[in-house]
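Please, structure for the following, as tokens.
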Amino acid sequence: MSQKAIAVLTSGGDAPGMNAAVRAVVRTGISKGMKVYGVYRGYNGLLTGDVKELNLRSVSDIIHRGGTVLYTARSEEYNSPAGVKKAADFCRQLNVSGVVVIGGDGSFRGARDLTNEGIPCVAIPGTIDNDIACSEYTIGFDTAMNTAMDMVDKIRDTAQSHDRCSVVEVMGRRCGDIALQTGVAVGAAVILVPEVPFDMDKDVIGRILENKGTGKKHFIIVVAEGVGKVNEIASYVQEKTGIESRATILGHVQRGGSPTLRDRVVASEMGHKAVDLLEQGFGNRVIAMQNGKIVDFDITEALNMKRVFDKNLYDIAHTISI
């Protein structure tokens, strides 16, 4: 009987902690007597043959590195039935009996498609936005928040020195979790997220003027990317309040950097769990965190779940930012 082989790839946007997950997959697989292949540049690697067998030392000294050593890319070809079949045929040529996919919900759909073509896949949530409904935590989220917090703390120094209002955009197109938790951590006067409708005059201008009336002289407004328009918001705040205002878009700096302890540990746990499932013959699964525990769900079930925004924390933020 030939040695069992699995593969691992990273797909979609990079997230700090992906390397820790890759490391865990490789070393767990080898410890179980498997061959482990690294697939480069996401699903593209299964179409172009950009694959390399990894050993224990292949993943040395990567746990602390941001980005992904396997690189990542989006693949138009893979999004077609013919592309998925081509990828599955390539896996069979390598005798790969399962694939670990690290990425977001788009990557999960790709994993489901490959499973349906006969190659069992287990997906791991790696995305800084924390926008995977089945999991209360995604790899990269903690690092991104800490990066954003550090940057806003620096911006606050200037805002305080000049009695300014700083309007700061953080990442999160559909999900306001980075904005919410960063906003709480930096003591933002206002937090704007896609999940909560707001009125500019009442919820932004009114709140700033109210706080100004109690002696507050500088302000931080944290805005999720999905709300956007930070330059317009800054101009409107200055026009209506007379407070000099500046806009800052943090952008891709939030994706980079050495992963935090939490991201390294969670990624390691999830990578280990993924290999366990493949060893047992399970596919079409997503690794997730629920109530602080590592669990797994059917991919289709996971994709159909609705994410719940933490309105309680949002209300707390509103209460204490006076």
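The chain is about 45% helix and 20% strand. The mean pLDDT is 96.
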